[in-house]
Amino acid sequence: MIKKPFLSFIALLTTFSLFAQQNDPIVFKINDIPVYKSEFEQAYKKGDAENKESINDFLQSYINFKMNVAEAKAQQLDTTEVYQRQFSSYRLQIAEPYLKEDDAFENEYITKIYNRMLENVEINHVMFPFFDSEIVLPSDTLRMYKKAMEAREKILKSGFTGADLTTPNSGSVFLPRAESRNGYVGWVSPFMFSAKVEDAIYSLPVMEVSMPIRAARGYHIIQVLNRRQALGSAEIEQVLFKFTRIPPPQQQIDSVGKVAWREYNNIKHPADFQSLCDLFSKVHQTGDKGCYFGVVSLDSNLPMDFTMAAFNLEKEGDISKPVMSNFGYHIIRLIRKIPLPTFDKIKYDIRDRIYKSDKVQELSDEKRRRLKSYFNVTLNDNAYRKLLDIAETVSPRDSAFLKKINNGNDILFSIEGKRAYPVREFAKYIYYRQKERQRSNDELRIMQIEDASPYSLSTDILQEYLDGFQNLLLSDYEESTLENRFPEFKNVVEEFSDGLLFFEVQDRNIWKRAKTDKAGLEDYFATHKSQYSLTESKYKGMVVYAKDETSLKKAESIAKKKKDTDSFIREIKNTLNKDLIRVRIEPGSWLKGENSYVDNKIFGGSQPKPYEGYPYFFVTGKMIDKPEDYTDVRNEVERDYQEKLEKDWNSYLKSKYKIEIDESVLNSIK
User: Fold this and answer.
1) Which of 375, 424, 471, 606 has a Cα at 20 to 30 A from 583?
2) What are the DSSP calls for 444-464, one per residue?
């Protein structure tokens, strides 16, 4: 078996933490490259605890290690794809504790949303939308704000019912015919409204009317009517008496309702509902699903009348009176009530819902603020003011925005006074964001931010783009400067790099070569043939597997003509395997018991399990009593050849690299 010395020694290196080199004497030099006492002493103490080496023995091992690292760099092994991938992966892994990613705030935010889920809130609500256009400018919001304030004054005087609110889409999108309810929504829970509106719902005192709340789609006014413990969810079945037209005419509402109420009044016990359910399933061809509806919660985006009818059912098996929606009349049966799961069970589900909602903006904004607080970021107000002036009339999501930028060479902001970024680089980022918006919603992820809605204020969009751009560059700055800011991180990274390079240079020049250098192995065996022998006779040749009997017979015929392995393999490749692999070949030499196919044909063994895809086989070759070439004693030859390569390699390094040892410094290490 191939030996790989120093591997345990290298593993130790990745745990070392070196000290500053100031006032740090040099133990030895390799071609004038110093190795300091702090590094060597720490390595020796760790190595001595594991291996109990004398300091002189360890010195020679460490010198050998450092020479290999120097040679690896000379061979440019630190530029290979394999090295770069492994090094980058390790660096990223150990960088994690040094980066300012603040998971604490995210956990706090998830906990806050869960606590809100424990409570339902009854509300009045009205919204004053901007326009059905993606371009929302400050002047647009000002006009709508005035309308919202006028409506609020009416609400304060006469309440929602007396305010005669006629704004489009008043009330929640979850309610049918919301206009007729004069702003009454009913009971709500988290994720039913935008983040800013939800914040107001869960912070307003009961009966207080909010100021206009600007969200992505428009201004909202909220009044909290009541609070209660959350109902959780309900798993239900339903029988639906459908309308044939939506919206239905009054005549159809009356006729379908009459049928629904008649069937409801005929339900005297559970079997009656089941019979109705079976008929419903047959008519609507629902199959095994029957009349199963699923799990309903307040945020299920269903008509509130339907949802509340489901929640008003108390015991399993309870059946509701017919309840009307835009689709028809529903008779609902309760399967079970489901309480809200514990925090630990739904924590990650809440996190996923946050990241798919506009709440991710709040979460990311806070993360950005915290990252920015760690570094000195200086914004050029004049340069940014010019961009804001453009945003007053053109949305940054509009391609025309980029065409109006005329200060591309101005410095927009700098980080720590060391890296400065001009407006033109920010313009490239805006262009990227514009392109990202053209992709599907599932793909729209930039720095954990989704544009929560196509309706947003232009100046807010510009600020969010700037925050995202700064966060991107701050993250890069933070990660790329770890070595400069944390000496211990730099040392650990360098130690891993040295260990990786040592392995690569040894593997390329010794370990891998000892297994793959056919010419070298052949020469070594020829020179040392007399020292190798077999403990018992072997069968040497080939096991040939075939897809079918015809291929098997053709291969047997070729084997009779081509006695040596190489010519047989070439002939098979050029004939039977030219277009399709019909034959597989396994050359080698085997003792009894090492190969079931050889055992069967040569040593009288039992019938072996067919080779997958190639059920027919034969063997060809001969018995040998002593090795004919290195393949007959491959393991022994590879082992000995590796030892030769190691000696030659060490001699090569010693001849190439000059070693200078300071004995006085070495003797001071205990």
Assistant:
1) 606
2) --BTTB----S-EEHHHHHHH
DSSP helix/strand/coil, 283: helix
Residues 522, 552 within the same domain: no
Sign of the dihedral defined by the CA atoms of residues 385, 389, 392, 398, in that order: negative
**Residue 602 CB coordination number (10 Å):** 17
Q: End of a domain among 465, 482, 499?
A: 482
* Same domain (yes/no): 210, 296: no
CA nearest 295: which of 337, 331, 325, 254?
A: 337
Q: 237 and 315: one domain?
A: yes
Structural domains of the chain, count = 5
617 and 580 part of one domain: yes
Q: Which residue intervals of 183-229 are DSSP H helices?
A: 195-201
For residue range 347-368, list pLDDT tens digits in order.
999 999 998 888 888 888 888 8
Mean pLDDT (the chain) is 86
Tell me which DSSP letter residue 563 carries. Answer: -
Is residue 8 very low, low, confident or very high in pLDDT (cuts 50, 70, 90)?
very low
* pLDDT score of 453 more than 50: no
Q: Which amino acid is at 670?
A: K
Q: Give the domain CATH number at 1.
A: 1.10.4030
Please name the residue that has the structure tokens 């005929």.
266
pLDDT at residue 134, as a whole number: 58
Looking at residue 2, what is its pLDDT?
Answer: 43
321-333 mean pLDDT? 92
Q: Which residue has the higher pLDDT, 440 or 381?
A: 381
Handedness of CA 188, 192, 197, 198 (dihedral sign): positive
Residue where a domain terminates, one of 160, 194, 229: 229
pLDDT at 467 over 50: yes
Distances (CA, A) of 9 to 51, 59, 90: 9, 13, 18
Which of 132-146, 156-170, 545-559, 615-629 is the least confident region? Answer: 156-170
Q: What is the pTM of this model?
A: 0.55
Residue 239's domain is classified under what CATH number? 3.10.50.40
Under 8 Å between Cβ of 305 and 238: no
The candidate with the shortest Cα–Cα distance to 658, out of 70, 73, 74, is 70
Nearest to 469 by CA among 396, 389, 360: 396
Q: Cis link prior to 247 (omega < 30° from 0)? A: yes
C-alpha span between 158 and 223 (Å, rounded): 13
pLDDT value, residue 620: 95
Other Cβ atoms closer than 10 A to 470:
23
pLDDT single digits (tens) 398-424: 899 999 999 999 999 999 999 999 999
Q: Which domain holds residue 170?
A: 119-229
Take residue 578 and report the two structure tokens written for it. 């030219």
